[in-house]
Design goal:
The chain is of the alpha/beta class. The chain is built from 17 helices and 31 strands. The protein is elongated.
């Protein structure tokens, strides 16, 4: 607060900027107010009809709403550097994100998270973080190095760290494993995000009793309702492969928008370019029968309240002037975005230090590295579920040739491997997947949640080996191989997770690669995001890491053979 703010609020001095002639949305009463907005520096200081201003902007009946807030997301999943991500989402009205940077933390440790926080200081997007709680996500994954309680505390002492990020090791919390409980009792915060896919009943009670107050993993109305009834804030998610929004909107229709907010979690560039960001969720909610006022509250104020961002999420005296100008309440595409009282303009491109680029270290691989020895018994196969992070388990007859279990594209049985890439240990987890559609070749990525080793799917071992070798050469990214040659690639040299190129380049290259896969028989939507989650050992049912197949419900490694 500054004396000038009060002088302008009283009407004694002119404001820096007055937005006049618009309909101002009050998140507190869900009303539209025909009032002017007086802005000084980066804050709103008054609403009324008599304010003077050094500059006045006539809005001719447009709607003024608070800037949108993404309640939980991972910047790395956009495959963009944070400055390019800001350029992508600001025009859609997202002015604040609460990020869990555990992708960077798995690859670069706390040094990577501190680097991210430092770089965010120069961009016109508020980036707050939650201190990553599960690096690795479980004992079955292999990051560059595990994050300790001391590492978490070091992040919690940063001014833009709000609390502890999603506690993904829900079995460990429910079982009161000391190393997980300690993360919830740092003495520096009581604000902890949750991650409890499919957790219900007594187990859910135990998880919440540990002090965890939110969840973004609900995929059904019944699951979300149980969590809300027990006091959890429900983050309605609309990610590239976890489009849960429409399934959860009945919760809002019946019980109102309180304790509900929007999050994108993991959204790729094509989703942002073609459909938008948080504004896409507002649009879908309204199309599905949610009043615009309720959708707008979930897109702004509720997230700010939950995360303790008292200066954000409203257009009112004392709040930061993050304001969107909307011409209608259908498309929710802003005609103008004010961030901290200023219209969005150009800002410098960030530079990436070399130590952030040199992150792919793999032992040499050949076709023999992907050989799976076996006989004729049934094998466990990961069943990919379209548009979901959850997977199923199939028991299938193997395709055995000379004592080796091979892929069988005629039955949609493809080989999957995870190759350790942080320490060149040579460790490879091998298995099989179905419901992928791949008929020939292989494709691979260094984006493999959450430890981000190399995940590769293929029907040809030689092509799988070439995928891995090529990823090491380009410093990480995505590669598609067919008949012994690289057909396409998207380098992601920033930690093997993000590009240093503009949004348009990444979007076009990713779309081209997805087109290649479709031509090779792949039936998955968002195939690269989909395969990245096949390596995440904390979302049921069957997953794979560099240590082997993981039965997530039993929370243990299992053999390929049944």
């Amino acid at each position: 607060m500054r004396p000038k703010w009060l002088a302008v609020a009283r009407g004694d001095e002119p404001a820096d900027l007055v937005l006049t002639g618009g309909q101002v949305f009050s998140v507190f009463t869900r009303e539209w107010l025909p009032l002017d907005v007086a802005i000084v520096d980066d804050h709103v200081v008054g609403l009324g009809n008599s304010y003077r201003g050094e500059r006045r902007v006539e809005l001719q009946g447009a709607y003024l709403v608070p800037g949108f807030i993404d309640a939980h997301m991972h910047i790395e999943s956009s495959k963009l550097m944070v400055d390019e991500f800001a350029r992508a989402v600001l025009p859609h009205g997202t002015t604040t994100v609460v990020a869990d940077p555990h992708e960077l933390a798995n690859v670069l440790g706390t040094d990577g998270v501190h680097w991210l926080l430092d770089t965010c200081a120069g961009i016109p997007l508020d980036v707050f973080v939650m201190a990553s709680s599960c690096v690795p996500a479980s004992q079955f994954e292999s990051p560059r190095r595990p994050m300790t309680i001391g590492d978490i505390k070091s992040l919690l002492r940063r001014s833009r760290t709000l609390g502890v990020a999603e506690m993904m090791n829900f079995p460990g919390v429910i079982a009161a494993m000391p190393e997980e409980v300690d993360k919830l009792q740092t003495g520096l915060t009581e604000h902890v995000d949750g991650h409890a896919p499919g957790v219900r009943g007594a187990a859910l009670n135990a998880y919440i009793a540990a002090g965890i107050r939110s969840d973004h993993e609900a995929t059904t109305y019944e699951e979300a309702l149980e969590k809300r009834r027990l006091g959890m804030a429900v983050m309605l998610r609309e990610a590239s492969i976890a489009r849960n929004l429409r399934d959860l909107l009945p919760l809002v229709k019946k019980y109102g928008p309180e304790h509900c907010m929007f999050c994108t979690d993991d959204r790729e560039p094509n989703f942002i370019v073609e459909e938008g960001h948080i504004n896409q969720m507002v649009r879908v909610a309204v199309e599905d029968g949610i009043p615009p006022e309720s959708a707008l509250v979930m897109a702004s104020h509720n997230a700010a309240e939950y995360h303790g961002l008292r200066h954000l999420g409203a257009i009112a005296p004392g709040y930061q002037a993050d304001i969107l100008v909307l011409d209608d309440l259908r498309t929710f595409r802003p005609s103008t975005v004010f961030k901290a009282g200023r219209e969005i303009g150009d800002f410098p491109k960030l530079q990436v230090p070399e130590w952030v680029r040199q992150t792919v270290h793999v032992a040499p691989v050949t076709a023999a590295s992907f050989r799976v020895n076996g006989g004729g018994g049934l094998i466990r196969v990961i069943r990919v579920i379209p548009r979901q992070l959850l997977t199923g388990v199939e028991e299938m007859e193997p395709n055995v040739r000379d004592g080796e279990i091979a892929a069988d594209p005629s039955r949609d049985l493809v080989k999957i491997a995870v190759v350790e890439r942080h320490h060149a240990s040579g460790r490879i987890g091998l298995g099989f997947a179905t419901n992928v559609g791949l008929k020939r070749g292989a494709f691979a990525s260094t984006v493999a949640h959450d430890a981000h080793n190399i995940v590769v799917l293929g029907v040809d071992d030689t092509d799988m080996a070439l995928c891995v070798s090529r990823l090491a050469e380009i410093g990480g990214g995505i590669v598609v191989v067919e008949e012994g040659s690289v057909r396409g690639e998207l380098p992601l040299p920033v930690a093997g997770l993000m590009s240093d190129r503009p949004l348009d380049f990444v979007h076009e290259r990713l779309a081209a690669l997805e087109g290649m896969l479709a031509g090779m028989g792949v039936t998955l939507g968002a195939p690269f995001m989909t395969i990245s989650f096949l390596a995440l050992s904390v979302i049921p049912d069957l997953k794979i890491t560099d240590r082997g197949l993981v039965d997530v419900k039993r929370f243990q490694l299992v053999r390929l053979e049944v």
